[in-house]
Amino acid sequence: MKICVLGAGVIGVSTAYALGRLGHDVSVIDKAADVSMGASHANGAQLSYSYIDPLASPDTLRKLPTYLLGRDNALQLKFKADMAYMRWGMSFLRNCTSARFDANRKARQALAELSSAALESFKLDAPSELKPTGHGKLVLAQDTADFDKMKQDDGFVSYERCLEIEPSLTAWQGNILGGIYAKQDYALNPITYCKTLKTLSEQKFGVTYYFGEIVSKILSKNKRIAGIETDQQYHAADMVVVCLGNEALPLLKPLGIAPRVYSAQGYSLTLKSKKSSPRTSVTDLKNKIVYANLGQEFRIAGFVDVNQRPNNIEARLELLLQTARKSWPDAADFDGPIAKWTGARPMMPSGVPVIGEALVEGLYLNIGHGSLGYTFAAGSAMKIANMIGHAQTNMMAKQGGHNAA
Ligand SMILES: Cc1cc2nc3c(=O)[nH]c(=O)nc-3n(C[C@H](O)[C@H](O)[C@H](O)COP(=O)(O)OP(=O)(O)OC[C@H]3O[C@@H](n4cnc5c(N)ncnc54)[C@H](O)[C@@H]3O)c2cc1C
Fold first, then answer.
1. pTM of this prediction?
2. Whose CA is nearest to atom 41 of ligand 1?
3. Is residue 257 helix, strand or coil?
4. Which of 99, 105, 116, 314 is the residue whose CA sits 20 to 30 A from 123?
5. How far apart are CA 238 and CA 235, in angstroms?
6. Model confidence pLDDT, tens digit, residues 4-23
7. What are phi and psi of 29, to 5 degrees?
8. Topology of 2-394 in CATH?
9. What is the distance between the alpha carbons of residues 24 and 12, in angstroms, rounded to a whole number?
10. 402 falls in which pLDDT band (50, 70, 90)?
């Protein structure tokens, strides 16, 4: 079975790996010069299986005027007179009810559990390369509303326990009332993850990577996939898996497929680690900032901006830097070199990614992973690999049936 995976971010690389392991003939095509050059590049680096609440929630709905008016530093939803945004926004609002929030949360939880197990199985192939750099994760409760909510959670820990788990939090400058601790969560540089899976899949399963090729068309014949066209060549394929994150829509539209993916910008800083840097990943919910130890380096990522103006990006990065430095001055070397980055999360209004076969036979989508795409990558890849496995079995059974007749 010849399969083209479009996109070499965390989702595409994981999907190609899972398919290669099953013995398929897999090619990966990306317009960039290497893996992990899009939204995956310098993300928060957290494999976060325990705290997976979607953004669309009754709580977000209550605070919507603050977000729309730009009065919250961490989350800004700017209005734009654009049909795609309006459709996404209406659907987002419909997903803010308690019932939808609970259903979406459950779907994300199931995908997180599958992903955790899937990544453990990938790790068996490369235990030293895929070794975590940060261990466990603490989500801090900084006000009574978060504290009261977190107290209901199985992972709830007191303020004293937060300090026992991560002693460097004594230098934290804000309020800590308690938190949620997830021992099984961890940090790992997404570039290391992608490069490791790429090399392994090439060496062990013969997966081929084509970089610097822009996919221009997905080709179908009689409602069945025929291949793809890039700016350089034609690739024949029995199946195509679209893992193009934010950029999937223009290629899907001619096929009559229009998933509601919309970009939400975020920002990150990569600093040098210090002796005092925490080993545990920490989430500051109030400021929507995550802290992760990557060994020699330290990652600080955060903020959610919808329709941010390009000329405001530098100011947002500066605000992220100043907020982190003020909150946790000892977390990393704030006086050394700092690499700044911005990326756009491919967000579904519900927070539940699109994983499955689309209108055309042999066309699969693995897109819309939003703020937790790295966490969901391995699980979504296994789901696609299983679906394609079933489809192949059915196809062979049909062919066998025809032959017998
Ligand atoms: C600031 C920030 C922090 C984050 N922190 C975390 C975190 O801590 N944990 C977590 O789980 N998630 C996190 N995320 C979310 C996560 O990074 C994304 O959900 C994930 O990277 C999406 O991966 P992807 O493979 O779908 O998209 P991408 O990584 O964007 O990959 C898509 C690929 O498609 C390629 N492409 C696009 N169009 C074409 C074309 N026409 N032809 C060829 N190639 C094409 C691009 O070059 C790109 O490589 C964060 C995101 C941001 C922005």
1. 0.96
2. 215
3. coil
4. 105
5. 10
6. 999 999 999 999 999 999 99
7. -125, 130
8. FAD/NAD(P)-binding domain (3.50.50)
9. 15
10. low
